[in-house]
What does this fold into?
Amino acid sequence: MTDRKVKIAIIGLGKMGISHLAILNAHPALEVVGVCDTSGIVMEALKQHSAFECFADYKKMVDKVRPEAVLIATPTKLHFEMARFALERGLHVFMEKPFTLNMSQGEELVRLAEARNLVTQVGYHNRFIGVFNEVKRLVDLGALGDVYHFVAESYGPVVTRKKEDTWRSNPSEGGGCLLDYTSHVVDLLQFVLGRVDKVDGSTLKKIYSSSVEDAVYSTLHLDSGISGFLSVNWSDETYRKMSTQLTIIGMSGKLVADAQEMKVYFKTAPAIAGYEKGWNVKYITDLTPGVDFYLRGEEYSAQIDYFARCIQNRNAHGISTFRSALETDRVLNLLRTYPQ
Amino acid sequence: MERILFGDNQFFAVNHLSDEKSRAQAVRFKDDSAIIKVLDTAIDCDINTFMCTTHDRIANICDHIRRNPNQYANFQIYPCMPYAHKYANAVTELGIMGTLKEYMPSSNLLGTLAKGGLAVFKKDFISIMEILVDTEMKMFKGVRTDVIFIQNVITDLILGLGMYDFFRAFSDYVKKKYNAEAGFITMNLPMLHQALEKVGVENPIICASINKVGFRMTGGVELYERTLREKQMRVIAMQVFAAGAIPPKEALEYVCNLPHISSILFGASSRSHIEQNRDLINQYWKKDEAVLV
It folds into this structure.
């Protein structure tokens, strides 16, 4: 690994973009060489109160500041065109989730990136949460025995009453609970338990929104033969913020985990250090490595740090690449096209 | 600042370890009277400062305080703004402009409407910040608030973006308008202290996670200890129990022996917990060593 700083530019300064920008800017191995957005208000704030070089046109920015990498955090419908532009110029790309709006676009981006051996990453930050990594480790070790069922859930209070439409409520622009919330849960599920083969009994339910689903319920069948339930609802105001939970049941034990804590039950004493027969509880404080800068959660910094290190080491086979995000898009597509 | 500050996470279903415990708390503190009862217990234990987020429900607590001035004569609140999830959920749904439209005051005061609309129109961000501060401060009218805090998600966002002049502007504004000192909550204490130094916020009040195991102490325990030793600041230690990972005795002994700690912030729901923590703090933090400011 080298110590040189990676020059990076960012496109899109919405909620995720601004937060990414702060993390990029605070990272010792990254140098933010340009920021780009079409929204007047955010760019104006940066122009007046920060030292960033600001652009309204991402192509002009890339040509002028010559970054090695870009972070794309624009609305989903713009992902494809922007990522293609960046990859064609040989730039490494970090993209906010979800990946793209249709499979053929996603496939083209994967081909482009792999042909050039470029580093790609999609912002599925659950893959960088300490607790979920421990869940994956236990599953991979076979600690639960033969897994026969899972429940993958996510709930939060995004749309809790009827309201005027925004891009979030437009399915062709990447809005809706399927792309916003469900993408995270499906990605995490495939990260931990493996590839989803088919979906059954899927419901995309409108609750308060008129044009997009607010909840997604389905049965998922994995390649491995395991099946389980998916339950996602972004109109549940009993949650203060997005909360994702995995329950996994096997012949030798059962596990319930969210981003904060994991409870795991073993029928007999497992051959894994730190665990015993019966219930075990592990907390975020035991399982979370420190970061250089903290904003909203260690995982947001950890994923950017990982991206920077992949670029420095030219590792194009990371843990949340365009290829793995395309797998997530594929499942979202199965859910979307399931006959209602 | 008092040596012990009472926190509010337990009232608003914030539990850094467990979503399940969060829900149990949400059930227990469904009614404002349950919150008031615990606050009264804290006061009874000689803890007279309540440090809380500008959650909608705090408005009801403030009403209660105003209705009972004698009972709360020595009591004060340190507001921490904004209640970030309110804005974050709104931004997810409405975008940044939509959220500004939704939350910039428009219905109550004609004056604020004109000032708010104009500030957005002119893209005068210092004025927008001031109006948002005023909006959050409305509920505290008539309640003593000696220190006004920016929540860590905003402090650390501004810090990461390098827009340090907002720290100075906030500090100047709360002094001028509310005769209060500015406080800054952060998960990045060493970096924040440097930034505040750069814009001339001297001897700042910083509230940060400080605990033996280094939980949410960005840069690590050693860097924190060095910064505390070498720099001038007034620190409020929070998350001293690392969300429950460290037993109370061990946790408080560690924090009480660090330099430049002015106060310890903790939340609790029962009299026995409040008393236990208070007694431990008094035991480890002998009076002559206390940094009273």
User: Anything to note?
Assistant: Chain B has one domain: 4-289. Chain B has a mean pLDDT of 88. Strands of chain B lie at 4-6, 49-53, 76-81, 147-150, 181-186, 205-209, 234-238, 261-266. Chain B touches chain A through 51 residues (CB under 8 Å).
